[in-house]
Structure formats: structure tokens, C-alpha cells
Amino acid sequence: MSEKNDYICVNCGVAAAALYRNYGPSVLKLTKCDSCKGIVDKYIEYDPVIVAIDLVLMSREAQRHIIYNTEFKSYWKLLIMLMLLETFAVWKNETLFNIAINTMCDIKNNSTINSTHISLPINLSIPQNWKIACQGWAQSEKDGSDLFIWEKDFYILFLSTFAGIIMFISTAHILMSLCALNKAPGRRVLKAFSLANASLLFAAPALVWGPGAARLYHHLLLAPYALVTFHSVLRVLYEGPRSLTVVVLILSNCIKYFTTFHVTPILRNIMNG
Ligand SMILES: [Zn+2]
């Protein structure tokens, strides 16, 4: 279970035996990499704020540092927190996913979701079973004052978001393990996922700003950023080819949203009798 011997050089990704050596109680020397001759992990001496900034800037060295060379035990707390945030955003109709659904399903009967419907110049023809799912999404009227129903819908969306995320991680992991060199253990996959998913935190301001014209642009800026972050983290994790990682990422995202789109109406049907 221990990942202690799995250190890698943050510059070149080659395995390293140790990050530093102790020479007496107050003397500590950072290990040099045998392969690239650089310092194996300069980040162990850095302030966490600097590491965080480098992570935001999508530095692969900082990503390797977190994924391979730190304990980062609270990753599952981060995972749950981000899952709650994502659910909250979907619940409030504040995501690109909602805009896509409301536009595709032509949902505009509800005052709270009016602003997330885009009028298309053409008529979309969607499969019959998608139309049934659409009806399930259209049912979510939140202008009533019944807080209990409102709250129950949050739990439903949490479950369907969770199902989507499980599908995303499994698809990405299975496809990348089949095609790439690196075999990543499950714990490290979850660690890497929660790290990449942290880009969701930038979506939080939009939830506070409320509806507005800037929202769509905010989403359109954030979505590519999240995709590039995931691409970078997947490359660090599996060392797969660039183009293959792009294909796997797009496919995994499609499966994720497809799952959430279809699971939500099913759960609503079950829970609402
Ligand atoms: Zn190296």
C-alpha cells in the first residue's frame, strides 16, 4: 500500500529512490536525478502557495510533485467538496451542461432556467429516448416554496453527478491503461483526478454573481482551461501520447455527461414515486 518508494523526478519523470538525504540533525541535501542531473523535487522546499500557483499555471513539475512525491492524504475530502460544488452548480442551472440540456431539450418554461436557454436557428432532431430524459429535466420546477422537494432534488443531482464522475474516471483509466505505458494504481488515479478537478473552483464566482450575460463567456473560458488541466494531469499520470490523451479525454467527458443526463430523470422518477 505504501507509495514511499514511488518517488519520481519532477523534471523527467524517471523513478528516484529518495527526495533528500539527512546529513545530521540540521543538514538536509536535495537528491539529484541520475537521468537528467536536475534536482529530483525542488518543490519540497517551496512554500505551498508557490506550489499552488504553479499548479494553476499547469506546471507538469508541480503536478508530478503532488501526484507522486507528496502524501496528499486529504484528496478524498477535496474530491467530495468538488463533487458538492459541481452538484450545486448543476442544481442552480449554472453550468455549460445545463445550458446544453436546456438548449437541446428546448426547456424554457421555468423562470429560473430561462437565462440558460439558447435559441437555435435550426430544429434539433434528437433520439426518442433522449426526449424522454428531456422531460425528466424539464420537470425540475424550483419556483415553488417547498424546500423539502428542493433539497431532495439536490441529493438526486448529487447521485447522478457521482455516477457521471465514476463513469468518467473508469473510462479514462481503462482506456489509458490499455494504450499507455504507465500503470497507475487506483489511489493515485483518484489523487490525480481530484487535483485536475480543482479547476472547478474557478467556477465558484459565477455561482455568486448570479445570472448575467457574462456567464456564458465565463463558462466558455473555463471549459477549455479545465480540459487542458485534465490533459496535462492525464499525461503526467499515464505518460500516453498527446493525441490519444485528447481522444480519451473527450470520450470520457461525453460518457460522463451522457450518464448524468440519463441517470437524473431515472432517479427523479424513483424518488418522486
Ligand atoms: Zn530527472
How much beta, percentage-wise? Answer: under 5%
Biggest sheet statistics: 2 strands, antiparallel
Rounded mean pLDDT is 87
Structurally, how many domains make up the residues? 2
- Which runs of at least 5 residues are low in confidence (pLDDT < 50)? none
End-to-end separation = 44 Å
List the secondary-structure elements in sequence, H or E.
EEHHHHHHHHHH
Instruction: Decide which structural class fits the backbone.
Output: mainly alpha
Let me know the number of strands: 2
Taken from the alpha-carbon principal axes, the silhouette is: elongated
Rg result: 22 Å
The share of residues in helices is 55-70%
Ligand list: zinc ion
Please count the helical segments. Answer: 10
Query: Reading side by side through the largest sheet, how are the strands ordered?
Result: 1-2
Describe the structure.
The chain folds into two domains: 20-56 and 65-69, no CATH class; 75-271, no CATH class. The chain is 59% helix and 2% strand. It has ten helices and two strands, in the order E-E-H-H-H-H-H-H-H-H-H-H. The protein has a two-stranded antiparallel ribbon. Strand 1 (20-22) and strand 2 (28-30) form a beta hairpin. Helix 3 packs across helix 6, helix 6 (147-179) packs antiparallel against helix 10 (242-271) and helix 9 (214-238) crosses helix 10. It is elongated and about 70 Å long. The model has no long low-confidence stretch (mean pLDDT 87). Bound molecules: zinc ion.
